[in-house]
Structures are given as structure tokens and as C-alpha cells.
Amino acid sequence: MTNTPKQLGLLGKRTDVLQLPDADIEYRPGFLEHAAAMALFEQLLAETDWRQETVQVYGKSHLTPRLSCWMGDAGLDYQYSNMTMSPTPWSELLQTLKARLESATGDKFNSVLINLYRDGADSNGWHSDDEPELGESPVIASVSLGAVRDFKLRRKNKSGESYSLALEHGSLLMMRGSTQRYWQHQIPKRAHAGPRINLTFRFVY
Fold it and tell me: How much is the pTM?
């Protein structure tokens, strides 16, 4: 089944701006209508070419505690944690979602990293999306589908400043400006959580 733009559902209008220093972060709950977001979740779960990547941490190889897929324009290899990912061609479904995002946000994207958190034991450690190929002020558009998971932020300057936000099904989190320069974020483990898919759209130079 191929979704059309209409089938992706109505866009929510509410926007919450996180009042954090040296950050530009917006949260839009209900960005995708609930039922349409669930249909999107189920289709991505079934049709995505999920892989478990190996990353290098302090010279040791580790399997990532989640499954992922890198999708985007041809030739846009993406490197992080000493790992290089080559893009899967855009699906019609995600081209449609990308167009919706670009229309709603005014930003342009040429790639998306899709993560599957199979249950509450899957996670993503502290990091910033600050790879050189994302430019000096990366724009990250993060769409959440499925189980609610905690999104935690902490200031890089060791001041102890932190923030936690529950990312809901169908929501959109936008990170712009100097956010990646001054803040790290993570998705910690969460007991008894069900499966969740997260799509982080970005522009690779």
C-alpha cells in the first residue's frame, strides 16, 4: 500500500518552544493525526530494511542497541562513531512525509535516519548531531511514532542544566541553530515500553 499526502493526516498547529539557553528547540504534539501516524508506523515497521549497525567506542566494537536505516539522495554517505552508512533510496511514503515537513517548517531535507526501538531495552546514548557534513547549524526534524519515550537534554558545559520531554506518538521535535553545539541528547531505556520508530530528517552537505 502506498500512502498519499492526504492519507498522512492533518497537521497539528500547537507549538511548544523550549526555553533553554543557546538552543532553538520546538515541540509539536499531534503533528500527525493519530490514526494516520499509526498506519505510517505499521508500514515502516513492515517495509523498512532494518539493520543493526556496529559502532566503535573507545576502540571496541559494539552493536547499536536499536535497528536503523539511512535513507536519502544518492551519494549522501553519513558518518558517525567511526561508521559509514550509505543511503537506501527514498521510498514514496517517506518522500511524501519529507514534502509535508518541508512545507510545514520551511526547511529542506535530503536524508533521514530511521531508528527502531524494539522495546524499552533499546536506547540511544548521549550525543550531539554535530557531524561536519551537517553544517555549522544543523536542522534536525524528529518525528516520533509508536510508544512514548523520554527525550533528555543536558548542557555540554557541565553546569548541570538538563531537560526531559516525553515524545508522543505523531509528534515533531525541531532542533535548529546552536542546539547541537551546546547541548547533548539521549533516549534512555524505559521499562515496559513498546516499539517506537523515530525519523530524524536532516540536510547533509
Answer: 0.91
